[in-house]
Amino acid sequence: MNYPVVSRTEWLAARKQLLTKEKELTRQRDALSAARRALPMVKLDKVYRFDGRNGRATLRDLFGSHRQLIVYHFMFAPEWEAGCPSCSHCADNFAGAVVHLNARNTAFAAVSRAPLAKIDAFSKRMGWTFPWYSSAGSDFNYDFHITLDEAAGSVEYNFENAAALVKAGKLWAAEGELPGLSVFLRDGDDVFHTYSAYQRGLDLLLNTYNYLDLTPLGRQDDDGPNPQAWIRHHDRYTA
User: Fold this and answer.
1) Residues 2-26: what's their mean pLDDT?
2) What InterPro entries does the record point to (predicted)?
3) How far is it, in rounded angstroms, from Cα 172 to Cα 162?
4) Which end of the chain is less crowded, N or C, counting CB atoms within 10 A of the terminal residue's CB?
5) 15 phi and psi, to 5 degrees?
6) How far apart are CA 165 and CA 181, in angstroms?
7) Residue 223 and residue 238: Cα distance in Å, rounded?
């Protein structure tokens, strides 16, 4: 064990020093959240349509009666039989939060390109009940740079050129499905895009990592373009 072992008094002094840094990070996060809320927004003129459990729906429909909408872009290509394990890890973390979001005037939905039948079968297997829609036949994934396809004009990820990110070892693929999250605001029937996040920008959604960050061993991820390669569907871990 390569960790220093000290007296309780020495540990307490070190812990108080770290607490000062933690408090400063909390203040910085509050300031960052305020700056995020102050971002300008873009009115969406294109009508996006999805397949849902209650039939066809527009992006406006996904809000229901709420003013805000959070969309998690779940990696699930049409030809796959199951959703991405890393996105499933994220879903395990947000599945129980939807009811609390609704209480704060915020709707939540996952969106994937897979057909609805595959989405429903996988959702049932995982035990999830959050709203999940198919964007098959829609430009939605391409316009929000979640499915990368040069033919569809989608070559950017995390606001940078995806091929350049791959070349720099910061991304595992410059085409196909990638994870992300987008936020929308509704004013009447008008819908505005306010925010999107990708890669490490999704860290705050992963309470598994928030817990592991409190431990001496930390996340135990391998460095590289896909540090979540260790993750499995929650029904696929061995004892």
Assistant:
1) 96
2) DUF899_thioredox, Thioredoxin-like_sf
3) 9
4) C
5) -65, -40
6) 19
7) 23
Which of helix, strand or coil describes residue 30? helix
Q: Are 206 and 197 in contact (CB under 8 A)?
A: no
Instruction: Copy the structure tokens of residue 96.
Output: 């129980």
pLDDT tens digit sequence for 181-194: 999 999 999 999 99
The whole-number pLDDT of residue 223 equals 63
**Domain extents in the chain:** 1-38, 46-205
Average pLDDT for residues 141-146, to the nearest whole number? Answer: 96
Which residue reads 């805000």 in tokens?
Answer: 68
What is the reported pLDDT for 187? Answer: 97
Tokens describing residue 154: 């989608």
Which of the residue ranges 63-72, 119-128, 218-227 would you say has the lowest mean pLDDT?
A: 218-227
Q: How far is the C-alpha of 49 from the C-alpha of 135, rounded, in Å? A: 7
3-state secondary structure at position 60: helix
Helix runs in the chain, H state only: 8-37, 59-62, 85-94, 98-102, 116-126, 140-143, 162-167, 207-212
CATH number for the region 46-205 comes to: 3.40.30.10
Q: Quick one: tokens of 148?
A: 């990368």
